[in-house]
């Protein structure tokens, strides 16, 4: 995700709050590839620290958590300062768990009644 409009649209979706980050997930209902965006505010730290957090999140998504993201969803991950010192295994585990929770609460597709 790259545009501000896409980030703002994701705010209408489901919110999962955690100790290390907040995830906003919006079901686009188009079945396309999952997309993600990262937000690390200035409150988190200086530019070096914010960039390190972004790099860690991108690597966690690339190596482990990207496969857990549901197709047709937009994910916005809002990072907290604790991600800076969090062990990478804990980061990937927590991110995978939260992303899987989004998919678990996805409504089932409507099926036509029998006999039609």
Characterize the structure shown.
The protein has helices spanning 4-10, 47-63, 88-104; strands at 14-17, 21-27, 35-39, 73-79. It is of the alpha+beta class and 116 residues long. The protein has a four-stranded mixed sheet with strand order 1-2-4-3, with helices on both faces. Strand 3 (35-39), helix 2 (47-63) and strand 4 form a beta-alpha-beta unit. The termini are far apart. The mean pLDDT is 88.
Question: Could you outline the blueprint of secondary structure elements for this entry?
Answer:
Elements (H helix, E strand, L loop, with lengths): L3 H7 L3 E4 L3 E7 L7 E5 L7 H17 L9 E7 L8 H17 L12
Short description:
This protein is 35% helix and 20% strand.
What brief labels describe this structure?
about 120 residues; alpha+beta; 4-stranded mixed beta sheet
Please give the order of strands in the largest beta sheet: 1-2-4-3
What best-fitting shape do the alpha-carbon axes yield?
Answer: globular
Distance between the termini: 40 Å
Helices, by number, come to: 3
Uncertain stretches:
none
**Structural class by SSE content:** alpha+beta
Can you give the mean pLDDT? 88
Please report which band the strand proportion falls in: under 5%, 5-15%, 15-25%, 25-35%, 35-45% or over 45%: 15-25%
Helical content band: 25-40%
Radius of gyration (Å)? 16 Å
Reading the helices and strands in chain order gives HEEEHEH
Strand elements, count: 4
Q: What kind of sheet is the major sheet?
A: 4 strands, mixed
